[in-house]
Design brief:
Layout: E1 3-7, E2 10-13, E3 18-25, E4 33-39, E5 46-51, E6 58-60, E7 68-73, E8 78-83, E9 92-99, E10 115-116, E11 120-125
Parallel strand pairs: 2-11
Antiparallel strand pairs: 1-3, 3-8, 4-5, 4-9, 5-6, 7-8, 9-10, 9-11
């Protein structure tokens, strides 16, 4: 199993930057694909970015491509999301998820992720 805890959220002005972290415990982090999802009030949870277990492949939602970067440090059992050029529509609770299957292409499908953290709030003001 994998236990996940997100951190790094908070208020920020439009155009600003934040870096989210997802700390994992458990022995399967280094073999799990990981992802960031987000959920705004009244909306479905949506994929933001995903990264292969090795860190060698990443996928992004169209809405964040070119602004957000996902990365991981398996030695620290931690995943990151660098968010630049933030917009008010990026406001949401951000969750990290783990897919222990470690398949080749990191999925952006919510149903592929079995483990979730409690989330961290990101609020972008205009």
């Amino acid at each position: 199993q994998v236990q996940l805890v997100e951190s790094g959220g908070g208020p920020v002005q439009a155009g600003g930057s934040l870096r989210l972290s997802c700390a994992a415990s458990g022995r399967t982090f280094s073999t799990s694909n990981m992802a960031w999802f987000r959920q705004a009030p009244g909306k479905e949870r949506e994929a933001v970015a995903a990264i292969r277990w090795s860190g060698t492949r990443a996928s992004y939602a169209n809405s964040v491509t070119g602004r957000f970067t996902i990365s991981r440090d398996n030695a620290k059992s931690t995943m990151y999301l660098q968010m630049n050029s933030l917009k008010p529509e990026d406001t949401a609770v951000y969750y990290c998820g783990a897919d222990p299957r470690g398949i080749s292409n990191p999925s952006l499908s919510r149903s592929d992720y079995n483990y979730w953290g409690p989330g961290t709030q990101v609020t972008v003001s205009s």
